[in-house]
Amino acid sequence: DAGITQSPRHKVTETGTPVTLRCHQTENHRYMYWYRQDPGHGLRLIHYSYGVKDTDKGEVSDGYSVSRSKTEDFLLTLESATSSQTSVYFCAISDAGRRPYNEQFFGPGTRLTVL
Amino acid sequence: DQQVKQNSPSLSVQEGRISILNCDYTNSMFDYFLWYKKYPAEGPTFLISISSIKDKNEDGRFTVFLNKSAKHLSLHIVPSQPGDSAVYFCAASASGAGSYQLTFGKGTKLSVIP
Fold it and tell me: Mean pLDDT, to the nearest integer, of B12-37?
């Protein structure tokens, strides 16, 4: 299994509070991604990173920000959590330099509940 | 606009029989396709992939078929086992800019009945 950890694994917070989720990898992969999974929507990309301090928006980026100060860590911040951000969040990594073998490897997920 | 579609939210199959999961795509730039399997409370895990230069790729009990003209791919599991019960996601990527991104379908929940 790829070395990807996410913390926390579960979190309950209140509307309006800031929340930061952490993804840590030990694979030295260049690309890192944050997805959310919701019933009826599958996996949707929030933000991704293609290197240290290099990030870009995905399909559902509103209300989220990210930072990557080290190769191994990718942080997802909900600046002011809303109930619509209740979801399961997955981090993924890939070594796209091995194209076309563009598999992404996923972390175990963080279940976030915003009350 | 959904570029990767899995039109069957769920599928039930008897143990030992064949499971066929379908996926359609609309973006003709997609040239690499992947299937992921997801158990509850776990992250998705890569299962099998296929490049657009092929029409079939096999790995043990799992075979993926690609029909480029129909923009359709399917995952066959033979024989199906109870441990195959999971949600299966189809994903696609395109060469060139953004080639490191995947576009996922909504998933199909497979239940294999003993």
Answer: 96
